[in-house]
Amino acid sequence: MPELAAAHHTHQRLLRHPRAATAWTAARAITTRWYDHQQHLTHRWRPRLNQLCEANLHLTSTGSASPALLTRDLVIYPETVALARALATLPNRPHRTTNDALTLIACRLGLARLTPNANDPLRVFLTHTRH
């Protein structure tokens, strides 16, 4: 899958950013929750999961282990990198609003819009973290 290779390249560049570690930790927690709760990006993740399972038949014959769980980190990797990059590079403006940040993040994730509820981990991160 070419998107995994491209994400890896972007991730390597991201690692040079001073806020990379914090952004990566937050992004991974956020996308993992989205994946587990089937939110926001499932239209991308389901086909990617299916492709991984088709290319790696042993994933579906591992007994009781869920292919969705076994491949989760790989399935969400491109979006995790994109979100981490967006979080690391958010403008450092005291007057930045959560909605402005959500608009920017939606664009970076290739979404028309992103409207997480009040308990969504991205909204919580943006509301309680000042860059």
Could you explain the architecture of this structure?
With 131 residues, the chain is mostly helical. It is built from seven helices and no strands. The chain is 64% helix and 0% strand. Helix 2 (20-36) crosses helix 5 (72-88). It is globular. The mean pLDDT is 88.
Distance between the termini: 33 Å
Q: Summarize the main sheet.
A: none
Tell me the number of helical segments per DSSP (H or I, 4 or more residues long).
7
Give the helix/strand class.
Answer: mainly alpha
Low-confidence stretches: none
Number of strands: 0
Q: What is the residue-averaged pLDDT? A: 88
Topology pattern, helix = H, strand = E: HHHHHHH
Shape: globular
Oligomer: single chain
Instruction: Please state roughly what percent of the residues sit in beta strands, choosing from under 5%, 5-15%, 15-25%, 25-35%, 35-45% or over 45%.
Output: under 5%
Alpha-carbon Rg, integer: 15 Å
Could you estimate the helical fraction of the residues in percent? 55-70%
